[in-house]
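Run log, item B.
One chain of 216 residues. Sequence copied directly from the ordering sheet:
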Amino acid sequence: MKYKLAIFDLDGTLLDTLDDLADSLSHTLAAAKLPPRTRDETRRFVGNGIRKLIERAVPTGSQNELIDTVEREFRAYYKLHCADKTKPYDGIIELLRRLRAAGVLCAVVSNKGDFAVQELAVRYFSGLLDCAVGERAGVRTKPSPDSVNEVLRTLGVDRADAVYIGDSDVDIDTAKNAGMDSISVLWGFRDREFLVEHGAVRFVGTPREIGDIVLG
């Protein structure tokens, strides 16, 4: 076994969440009488947490009071609709089962609000994850390594025995900041060219390839 722990990003890596994110953003912007954003714009805006998503989605120069209001509305709406269309990517459930059967620990570290991370982890991955953490007050979001370090401590695994797996530049930087190896998936919210430009060096096109690398 090459790694004892596989830490995954959630959105764009384990789960295809884009439709629910885009629908929730559309609802929120419409409620605030703000210009709409497309699904593709939403795809490019996500990755750095809810606050940054809203800051990118509202008109340039918006006051903090407006951003606060839109963020609150988004959180409330998305909490109720985070699993309407969301689903695991093909092969993900089989991957997690394979890793677990081989004795590999599996965790999630995401910039998605922790309320949604916990609900989605239970809904789609019950019994398949040893730890899952999302965005929480007082904890720096990725690419800070704080949550990754917390998972390493909680599960008692050395960073040399762990690998971080994600679909974005944020995930690449998170692994670097945590002093860990990384794997970039090609089915998520960023394309290969973008990932190469941001320092990705190891790619996979299917979940099965992740299992092959993790198990060595």
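Observations after the first pass:
- The mean pLDDT is 96.
- DSSP finds ten helices and eight strands in the chain.
Flagged for discussion on Thursday.
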